[in-house]
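Continuing from the previous page of notes. For each protein in this section, the sequence appears first, followed by its C-alpha cells. Read the first protein now.
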Amino acid sequence: MPHSSKPKSNASPSTFPEYSWKLIHPNARLEYYQKPQDCDQALAKLPPGDYGFDMEWKPTFVKGGKENPVALIQIASADFILLIQISAMKELPPRLKYFCESPDFIKTGVGIQYDSKKLFMDTGLSLYNVIDLSLIARSVDNERWKGQYKLPLGLARLTEAYHSQTLPKGKTSRSNWETVLNDQQMSYAANDAHCAFTVLQVLRQKLDLMEKKPNPRCFTFNCVRGELLHVPPLAPLPWGPENPDYDPGTSLLHPDHRSNLLFQIPQTTPVEIQVLPLMDIHHPQYLDKEIIREHIIGNGLAAVVMVAPTVEVADKSVAMAIVLIVKNSPRTTTVIVTRVVLDPMTLTESVKALAMPTVSSLSPTPAMN
C-alpha cells in the first residue's frame, strides 16, 4: 500500500491526486446491499481483523429539525467494501449485529465516538473494539499532531498526511442516503470507509516501530448501549480520550496558551463572516465531518471553524475561534485563528480589520473553559 511518511512540503491540498480505493486495492469488491439475507451472506465471509467503519444519513435542512436515522453503513477492508443500506430494510441483518458486537472485528473511523452513540440510538446496535482514528494518529505520530488530545482530525486531513492524496467531499456528503444510491454516492461512501482502513494500516506500521508503545486503551473503546466504556480488562468502566504520554505542544488550543494571534488575509480574498446562535451549534449540520466539532460559548455566540477546500490553515485543529468561512478563491488564503470569544460589536470591528491589507491583531476576551 503506497504512502508517504510525511506530506509533501511544497504541495498544497489542491495539488494532491484524489484518493480512490480502486487504485490502492484494485481487486477489492464493492458490494451494495438493500436486502438483509443478501447482506448476511456477505458479512459471513468477513474474517476477523481491521475494518474501516462509517455511516451516512439523510441531512436535515430544517433549522432545529430532528436528525434523521442512519441510512447507510459502510464496512471496508483490503478485500471487501460493503455498503449496507439499512434504511431500505425492514429488519437488520443478524450478521450485522454479530459484526458490530464482536471484538474480533476492529472498527475504525473518524468521528466514530459520535457515530457509535448514534448507531445505538437509531438501531439498538452496540459497537465493540472501536479505534478512534484521530486518537491513534495523535498517539503514534505525536511529533506531527499537536493540540488537545481529544480534538478530532478530519479524515481528509489524515489522507493528505499519510497518502499525499485528497479525499473529495463536496455536495455528495449532504445528499439523500435513503434513496437508491447512484454511482457518485457509492464511490464517496466506499472511499470514506476504505480510507479509514488504509490510514489505520499506516498508523499500525508506525506503532510497530515505537519503542514505548501507547496503551491501546488510549484510543480503543466499546460503545455499549450508547455508553463509551473501556475494553477489557477495565470493562465496564467509563472510557474517555486520555493519553498521559501525549505532548500537546504549544498549539493554539493548549489550555495554558492565551497569547494574541494574528489574522492574515489578503485584501483580494472574499471573506464571509457568519455568527451562529447558541442553539445552532448542536444542529446536525454542524456535526458534518468537514466541520471541526469543538466549540466554546460566550456572550451568546458559539464559535466553530469551517475550512474551504482551497484554504491552508496554520493549525486545522483550531476549533475555538471566531466563525470564519472562507470562500473558494484562486488565491490561497492563510487563516490563523485564536481561542477567543468575541461579542457582536468586537466581531464587527474584527471584520473591518480583516479587510485591511496589513496584518491586524485582535485582543481576545478571556476564553471560557
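Done with the first. The second protein uses the same format. Note its length before scrolling.
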Amino acid sequence: MYYNLSRPVINPLALGVVGAIGGAVLAPLLVTAGLGVMGFSAAGTVAGTAAAAWQAGIGNVAAGSLFAGLQTVAATGALPVAVTFVGAGVGGLGGAVVVVYSGIGAAAGGLRANVSADI
C-alpha cells in the first residue's frame, strides 16, 4: 500500500514561531555582546575602544542621548522591550523567508512525505 501525505514535512507556521522565539531570545544577548565589543561595560567605557573614542569626541554626555542610553543598557543589562519585539519580528520574518524560498511550505509545493508500506 502506498501513502502520500499531503501535509508538508515542516510546518511553515511552526518554523515562523520558532524563528520568532529564537529572535526574541537572541536579540538581547547579541545587543549586550555587541555593546561589550564596542567598549561599553558595567563600569563605564573601556579605554582604547570605539566607545571611548566616541565619548572623547562628544565631551560631556547629555542625559537621554544615544550614548547615555547605550551605556545604561551595558551597565544595567536592562534592554528596552522594543529590542525583544524587534528580535522576535526579525526571527519570525527569517522563518517566513526560509519557508517561501526553500520550497518547504505548502504554498510553495514543499517537501512531501512519501511513505510506502506493504500490508
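What the second structure shows: The first helix runs from residue 12 to 38. The chain is about 60% helix and 15% strand. We return to this in next week's lecture.
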